[in-house]
Amino acid sequence: VFDGGLKKIARYQQYFVVKSTLERVKQFDDTGARKGGMIWHTQGSGKSLTMVMLMRNLALDPEIPTPRIILVTDRDDLDKQLGNTFAACGFAANRATSGRNLLELVAEKEPGIITTLIHKFDKAYAAKKYRDDSPDIFMLVDESHRTQFGTIAGRMRQMFPHACYLGFTGTPLLKKEKNSFAKFGKLLKPHYSITQAVEDGAVVPLLYEGRHVEMMQNKEAVDLWFERHTQGLNEEQQADLKRKYARAEMLNKAEQVIYTRAFNISEHFRAHWQGTGFKGQLVAPDKASALKYNQYLDEFGKVSSEVVISAPDMREGYEEADDEPTSEVRRFWDKMMKRYGNEAEYNKQLINQFKHGDEPEILIVVDKLLTGFDAPRNTVLYLCRMLREHTLLQAIARVNRLHEGKEFGFIIDYASVLGELDKALTMYSALAGFDEADLIGALTPINSEIEKLPSRYSDLWDIFKTVKHSRDEEAYEVLLADDELREEFYNRLFEFGKTLSIALSSEKFLSETDEKTLSRYRDDLKKFQSLKASVKLRYAEAIDYRDYEPKIKKLLDSHIQANEVIRLNEPVNIFDDASFMAVKEEHGIYQLRKTRASRADAIAYATKKVITEKMGEDPAFYEKFSKLIQQVIEDFRAKRISDQLYLNKVIEIRNKVVDKVHDDVPDTLFGNEDAMAYFGVVRPFITAHTLSEAELEAIAADTAIALHGILEKHRKVHFWDDEDAQKQAVNEIDDYLYDELQTAKGIELSTEQMDDIIKKVLQVAKHRDYK
After folding, report:
1. Which CATH code fits 204-430?
2. What is the pTM of this model?
3. Cα distance between residue 65 and residue 85, in whole Å
4. Angstrom distance (rounded) from CA 694 to CA 724
């Protein structure tokens, strides 16, 4: 494709995933809908261009005569960014401006590209009960793991029941997001991790440096303040308030802490980056803190900075849902709107200046611009608040883009995110693979859960059967004075809310439930959630922090003293196992496992655990490494190898397990991990005295590819719950083994051997579907 006049050729992961996706979308399930799937390619590896390449291939495919492609995102800036990417590649995209406009664009039924925000589907359906049964509609959903996709997915499928749904994500799915696979179909191969991207030179490596601000508090003054201001609270409430006071997010917002960090950031950027053309991004705890960092950086006068935040009424960072924006935040926002005219122009101009101008050198944000923000000159990320999981992975990827002269991206951590960073990076490896039992639960048909909704709704209302007037809120609260009854109310509310959330993601439920009932469920959930918050305050289970927040903030500003900033470690490459492990040990992340032997043991037994958990997915592959790791452990215990060699060997084995290094399978299986697993099953059965080893391996590879094709042909939603569908697949495999292997190729197989092959291949296929 041409991107802004530059010719760009697909990288290997883009080529193969487009190819596998095209094969997938030409298959249909029993309802007539095209099969979809999930594409996981790490941030910075060209995910948007992969979408363009896929779209171009869909448009040119003769088997898909009139494709309508809808690009779905959950944020306005991402919506614009995708539209701009397609435009730069010469493809005009129509941007839906409203729910009604989305319907108008889709209803034209002409081949083309539409971009839209995900919430517009709900509004579109509310405006008109629209339905389009065309299988030639392709929904490309960006960052599709996000939770808001779940409740609107049902509405999308209700409107477009036969469309093809393709999810894209730049971060690996967490266990709690495993149902995303169920909604889209399967993980499309190959996935492309951040480690692979670094090795390929698609992104730059990231260097981590921890920094710590030494803090001192005036303990007597703090204790006196609590004694005076908490006289009306019981012991549990006082302890709760003290815990909030001591939380890292509160300390991160203390005036002296911000001042000290800002000075350190100013000096660091001036010494290392000023005048190089590279830029920095600072992540603040909340909007008010962001403005403080900007104020102090301006006062020091060493580096230039600007603040990009969302509107005052939009929650970001550590801000609670009911926090009132400060007067400083409102004044800042009014000033920006007066200067730039509107929010869109404010964002556009500051981002453009940061990307292309000399100033600002540092962009200060809270949540905004932590995802989907590509600025190749952005090189150093100053973390001044705790981030976790996807948000942390997205944030560090802001500084890993390629740029001339840029060898590394830098993460300067003032908020002690090292432990969270370790967890987040672990999600990329096989060592954080899904638990089979969890996935089986996730892929269970949701009908059984939805059937519980009416009873859970009536169970919830049953608590209040003695209340005469349904709108008498006081009566509800008085009734819940009883501790046990109140706890039962909380439990029933939780169960109802969980089941309703599942139901709202189901096309079947939305189609079969009238709008009046849907509204009643939603309204009553909101009503009871509000009631829960009220009784928690009324019966002293919780404190209304809004009364204390300004006072605690003043307390911290007055009595927390920040001294010097301590550098905790030299910058270390987070993809260099040995170096990063050493830093994590120094920081106590791994309980100070200082010896080589203890580090080797930790890696060896973690790898053994993963091998055991994943054995069913590819028995031949994992059995080989199970024996290798056990042999290395025994060699070390028998003192046949040194501590260092033990460590080196287990790291080598661990890496091969993580990277799924198949160095003993034919080249024809490259890129097809399912077929590789089936190859391991069938290879021991393929024997013939008249054929060479190479010929036997080629026959085994062809058989594995054929079995994979048969299973893909018969696979559908809930395949493993459908005995008839399984029998059809078994019969076709049985025919292939007899006709092709035994008759055509002369491989002698007994009936028992054929049955054994079929049984083992189905077991592997089931494990792989649930991985």
Report:
1. 3.40.50.300
2. 0.63
3. 24
4. 37
